[in-house]
Amino acid sequence: MMRIKFVPYEKLKGNHAAVLEELKEGMIIVVDAKLSPKEEAELIQETMLAINQRFAGIELGSIDFADVGGGRKLRSSLLEKLSGKKRGITLIGPAKLIRRIEQKPEELMLYF
Amino acid sequence: MMLRHIRMVKNSFSSLVLSIFRKRKNLKIGLYGPVNSGKTTLANRICMDWLGEELGTASVVPHETREIQIKEKVTMKLDGKSLAFNLVDTPGIATRIDFEDFIKHGLADEEAKQRAKEATRGVIESIKWLNDMDMVLVVMDSTRNPMSQVNITILGNLDARKIPFIIVSNKIDLKKSDTTKIRNSFPGYDVLGVSAKNGDMMKELYKMMLNRL
Asked: Residue ranges of chain B with pLDDT lower than 50?
């Protein structure tokens, strides 16, 4: 049975360990923000530490709303500066479940 | 189009400012990219061209490079310009490492598990070392879809840390090579197609490196 969990960015921020535990259980996580490059790098590093014979890592994909539609760019930038949260979507799934994620600026495609 | 021009002006200005203030001695030029993109092959090509010796072992088996490898005192001289640096070859960055993939490449069970363990440590080290780089060659396999999270994460971190970089579209000797796809995926950045294996376009790469630093 496939399980998908929608997680607010505020819950994920600085708490990758909890999210990784859910990923190890086979959960697909959808976050309501685009992670920063630094956060992505940290998530990858922590994923590497979590990898074992049962957990092979993650597939990760994201959409930055700033890349979607021209007129939203300025509005996105102002909101992000005010909230510290980059508007977008991040999808994280266990590598044993998701074969790959195909990324385009305005869409994500999951392959199982 | 406008975004591309803005990025080009921004990159040129950043390079100029950073080149004035960055230490000129012991420059570190790193090779970063996803697994099997040809980083070590490119490192070996650069070292052979300027030092007459290779840096590491390349292989089709993923994660052949599992530790940071450094070749010190590489001196590049071309068209009256000179650049001395330490070349840093890094393990390929990945979000997944499955020991069963190594078994498919013919490794024994225990060897595959050990390789997977070392590969995870290699990825962690790669990311840690990013902070120390003065310039990066982001090596992408030009036969593969460039819009991967690994490539996006690498470029995003280089941008955020203001580290100058060149996207090297490797493996142009192969039939399925498509450097245009890489250029279109990452507009506004310097992209050069090379064949590290055959040495094609290496002089052009060296010129770009000399101009960036």
From this structure: 21-23
Write the pLDDT tens digit of every residue in A51-98.
Answer: 999 999 999 999 988 877 654 455 556 666 666 688 899 999 999 999
Contacting residues of A for B97, CB less than 8 Å apart: 48, 51, 56-57
* Residue-range domain boundaries for chain B: 2-11+27-94+121-212
- pLDDT of A85 reads 80
What is the ipTM for the molecules in this complex? 0.88
Q: Count structural domains, chain A.
A: 1
Say if strands B135-141 and B27-32 run parallel, antiparallel, or are unpaired.
parallel
DSSP states of A35-85: PPHHHHHHHHHHHHHH--SS--BEEEEEEEGGGSSTTHHHHHHHHHHHHS-
Q: How far apart are CA B145 and CA B125, in angstroms?
A: 25
| Residue B184 host element (H or E) | helix B179-185
What count of other Cβ atoms lies within 10 Å of the Cβ of residue B148? Answer: 24
Which residues, numbered 50 to 109 in chain A, qualify as contacts with chain B under a Cβ-Cβ cut-off of 8 Å?
51, 53, 56-62, 95-96, 101-104
**Radius of gyration (C-alpha) of chain A in whole angstroms:** 14
pTM: 0.88
Query: Does 3.40.50.300 match the CATH number of domain B2-11+27-94+121-212?
Result: yes
Q: Do A59 and B149 touch (CB under 8 A)?
A: yes
Say how many Å lie between the first and final Cα of chain A, rounded: 13
